[in-house]
Amino acid sequence: MKKSIAAVFSLTLLAAASVIAGPKAVKVDPPYAAPAIEGTDQTGKVVKFADLYKDNKFVLVYFYPKADTPGCTKQGCSLRDGNAELAKKGVKIVGVSADTVEAQKAFAEKYTFPFQLIADKDGKVIDAFKVAKRPNGMASREAFLVKDGKVVWHDPAAATEKQAEDALKAVEEAK
Fold first, then answer.
1. Which of these, 2, 9, 14, 22, could form a disulfide with 157 (CB 3.0-4.6 Å)?
2. Does residue 116 surpass a pLDDT of 70?
3. What is the dihedral of CA 173, 48, 156, 42, to 10 degrees?
4. Angle at the Cα of 144 from the Cα atoms of 139 and 145, rounded to 5 degrees
């Protein structure tokens, strides 16, 4: 009887921990076609995602709620600081939020982000990737790794300070 109660208690704790921790990043199996959508970056340039997939070994598309807020800044700075290492592995980084072109430009300049930020005010890119939206319409914090035009990794609760580290691990697993 004691073993049964202990086993049930352990399983209950494990289940509670997974709910508290939230969904985990996972290798996508089988990979599925990444959205071939267009968006506008912080310079006003139209970005064709299909071209990004074709021209790069990997594309990390990360979504964040709002430019120049604490968590989003930590996430972007993590990727900025890890950009050189990610680039060595063939990764192109693209950030997406429902901000305006002007807000994305100011955010990129303030923190010297070496990657494109997509201004997705109408939510087309957010919807194409099926990113959950917060009640205020902002994107949730998620990340997708695309290889050969297919999503091979998805992080439904992307980290802030560890985004680059998590992406590097995903790239290693996706080789």
1. 22
2. yes
3. 110
4. 160
Q: What is the per-residue pLDDT for 92?
A: 98
The CATH number assigned to the domain holding 144 equals 3.40.30.10
Domain that holds residue 144: 23-174
| Domain count along the chain | 1
pLDDT given for residue 18 in this prediction: 34
Sheet holding 142-147, edge to edge: 26-33, 150-155, 142-147, 58-63, 91-97, 116-119, 38-41, 46-48
As a whole number of angstroms, the distance between CA 108 and CA 89 comes to 23
- Report the distance separating Cα 92 and Cα 116, nearest Å: 9
- Chain-wide mean pLDDT for the chain? 89
Catalytic residues: 72
CB 125 within 8 A of CB 95: no
pLDDT, residue 26, reads: 86
